[in-house]
Amino acid sequence: MPAPLSRATTFAAAITASLAVSTAAPAQQPLPAPAAPTSAKPRPATVPSSRAASCHNGQTFDRFLAELKSQAITAGVSRSTIAEASPYLVYDQGIVNRDRGQRVFGQIFTQFAGRMAATYRMQQGQQHIRTYAAAFARAEKEYGVPPAVIAAFWGLESDFGANLGNLPTLKSLVSLAYDCRRSEMFQGETIAALKIIDRGDLTAAEMVGSWAGELGQTQFLPTHYFNYAVDYDGDGRRDLLRSGPDMIASTANYIANGLKWRRGEPWLQEVRVPQSVGFPWDQADLTIKLPRAKWGSLGVTYPDGKPLANDDMPASLLLPMGRTGPAFLAYANFAAYTEWNNSLIYSTTAGYLANRIAGAPPMLRPSAPVAQLPFNEIKELQGLLVRAGFNVGKVDGVLGQASRSAVKAMQMKHGLPADSWPTAELLARMRGVRAQPAEAAMPGMR
After folding, report:
1. Are 219 and 155 contacting, i.e. CB atoms less than 8 angstroms apart?
2. What is d(CA 345, CA 372) in angstroms, rounded to the nearest whole number?
3. What whole-number distance in Å separates Cα of residue 373 and Cα of residue 45?
4. Measured between alpha carbons, how far is residue 311 from residues 28, 292, 314, 315 in Å?
5. CA 260: distance to chain centroid?
6. Is 86 left (phi over 0), alpha (psi -120 to 50) or beta?
7. Which tens digits make up the pLDDT trace of 276-322?
8. What is the distance, to the nearest Å, from the Cα of residue 446 to the centroid of all Cα atoms in its chain?
9. What is the largest CA-CA distance in the chain?
10. pTM for the whole structure
11. How far apart, in whole angstroms, are the C-alpha atoms of residue 237 and residue 202?
């Protein structure tokens, strides 16, 4: 998602729904029709916690809501829409508790991709492309986004419309807006949702989705719904909950114009990396781009051993599980995936699923199981990295990009292959050796 918003803020909300479907899905599963949303029903408000009011100068929820409604009117929302939405603009402490309690999945890439990019989801994506062939073809012509890319996000976000969520969106948004963790963001999302109603796309009662306020078959935050939704079926409404053509076009519009997709270029390509001692593992980083010909000269090949194209197309070497796991070349368009959701596991899985839907074979299996540090040891390693002067974000046992960068720096310091994958050997060395300041390990890193 475009800055300052990030789909990582609602990662658990999106993936929990998909995992619930994928866990029980057989290899061959009938295609569900896009689910019609259940109309939201107004419910009594719950009492906001005192903590929730602290960032609003002690305002009660009612006073906060009155000011938010005034801001919405200033932003162009009609008073009739405010009246329609008001029964749903109630506080729910349960939503806030879910937001504060969410944990990003700690699965390794092969486990996560094995579930989320399962064969049945690939087959359903291909079937949906055939079913909506006209809309996909029109969207690709207009926006330059391949059908497989759209279908992969469609499958991951809602299992092709089968799992849209069942909570009143306005209640979720306004509860998160009153809470202090991301108040400003969700105030904007609440006003955007009101604009969607005001425009006539959805009614307040129809606005049902995930607990985090995302809407539709590709789970748009309201700001993105309002800015990028397209009416492709010609009924005068932009309905991303029930209209396949509207969803396809809107997702293409967002990817093309919101995420800056580059027409005609690849996104992610599996490769085979030599396990030679001298391979420059420290170059395997999304921030480092080398010509494809350069990767070829270093011994990187396609999975079947054939040489890479000998050209100047820039690409990064992506090793989501280190040097002994799967390997990919990530091209400029992969940035659209990390903007959609900045979880590396999710974005890599989405790119891989798009490849599979487009006809690519399954990825190579690692020759041996890739060892992963247990949750508590990753958390301990993060703590050691913080003491060494690195900013790894939250010490939470989840290997995010900041943690991977710090791991790489410490691998280089200790003379280990710098593939950004935390190992027991690195942890043992950091336990046994007093860490030097991060500047000594990697200038400029903090």
Report:
1. no
2. 14
3. 44
4. 40, 6, 9, 11
5. 16
6. alpha
7. 878 999 999 999 999 999 999 999 999 999 999 999 999 999 999 99
8. 25
9. 69
10. 0.88
11. 8
